[in-house]
Design a protein that fits this description.
With 140 residues, this protein is of the alpha/beta class. β2 and β3 form a beta hairpin. The radius of gyration is 15 Å and the shape is globular.
Length: 140
Amino acid sequence: MNSVFHLLYVSTARQLLDAEALEELLVQARERNERLGITGMLIYGAGNFIQALEGPQQAVSDVYASIQRDQRYQHVITLVEFDDDVRDFPGWWMAYAHEPHPEKIRGCINLLKSQQEATDKLADDRFVRRLLLNFLNTNR
């Protein structure tokens, strides 16, 4: 089985994103990530992002480097990186707290209307436990 590289980071948008900008971001990210074999989850609310990326290490590292260079974002902070045999988000998901919302896009969860769906996606104890353990091990 191939190793899967996981990277979790936070960032802040330099300007709040409206529904159109959010939809454009998601479509671009999904097309790029599917092409590169990257999956994950992006959560957006009030100008802040938290994103989990997972896939081939070079592809994830390249995408993250492009995010760090992107002038639309600031305060890009890596929370944790680790290798594993399993993907935590085998599909691609984006959760957001913003109205109006592009729910017609595959993989979008509106946190204002579907808090339970977002909670269910993140309720995987294995993912949370691994995230915490890797954060602790990385920051010793």
